[in-house]
Amino acid sequence: MARIYSFSAALATATLCLLAWQPAAAADANQEIATAVTHAGLAAGSGEQKVVSMHLHHVVNCLVGPNGADFDASAGNPCKDQGAGALVDAPAKKGELETALALAKSGLTATDIAKAKEKAVETQTALKKAGM
Known about the structure:
Layout: H1 2-21, H2 29-45, H3 49-64, H4 86-89, H5 94-109, H6 113-131
Helix pairs in contact: 2-3, 2-6, 3-5, 3-6, 5-6
């Protein structure tokens, strides 16, 4: 009888550990990428430098996630509750996503709105490629 109880207790403990390990919300890298595509498009279509920058920050935040080194909470996070960032949640697409991240960051450093918008278009194209 003691062995059955020990086995049952061990099984229950293992089950609880596995349940506790599960993330609170399932990551959806495709949704993170789609949201980033949308914000790259919004950046490309904006007529104001500050709005272009805001949407490019949204792209960066969706790609790196809230624990990423480039995450900027003050810019807002349209990918909140979608996962840990597309780079984390879609390791198979890392190369394409890193290209998109570099383009978005390049757009953020551009002082000319036309150049920033050009980088936003390139970012969107790279993200669409990654989303395929």
